[in-house]
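Hey, can you fold this one?
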Amino acid sequence: MAVILSIETSTSVCSAALHENGNLITGRELFVPQSAASQLAVQIDDLLSHPSVNGNPIQAVAVSSGPGSYTGLRIGTATAKGICYALQVPLLAIDSLHVLACSVEGNKQALLCPMIDARRMEVYCCVLNDQLNIVKGTHSRIIDKDSFMELLDDHKVMFFGNGAEKCESIVKHPNAEFLKNIYATASNMGKVAYQKYIAHLFEDLASFEPNYLKDFVAKTKSAEKLL
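Sure. Predicted structure:
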């Protein structure tokens, strides 16, 4: 039996969940931007005191590894590392876009393109098949009218996530489908986390860092007005 604590803070949703052998025990989600700093630890404490846990020890901690919010990823990673050090359990890292894709049921005729907003007309994205195997790896991309045409001419592609919202008016093709209200949450990390756990795909606690994709740049007030 493997009980894994999952943490997802890469977007505006702060969430944590417990899974046993990949099956959800209980989870917490807060749809409030910038809430991870004050609420993530509260969510985890609430999970660990839930009656359904029955005192079962945590065997690993899984964390969304980016891309996404610089601050959110930093808070999630620091929290996950702290728990791993305290409990002497391994750390599992899961690409944030793969977590987002786990929220969509597979379609054998469609590719999946999860997207996270990276400001202006840029997104973080990847392309997966219905088995969540990588077709095109995680990367940043500036969206224009020709984006993804090399895929859309031959495949139906489902776009989703908060980055997809601004693309719908630009990416025009009969094979493009835009899904609404799809979020990356810790409750959807269970199966992937368990697969990594049984394969012993653990991260080095001392050296692990999130995949920010871009360097952090502090914004001035004037710059904020332009975004």
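The helical segments are 36-48, 70-87, 96-101, 149-152, 190-198, 221-226. Let me know if you want another pass with a different chain boundary.
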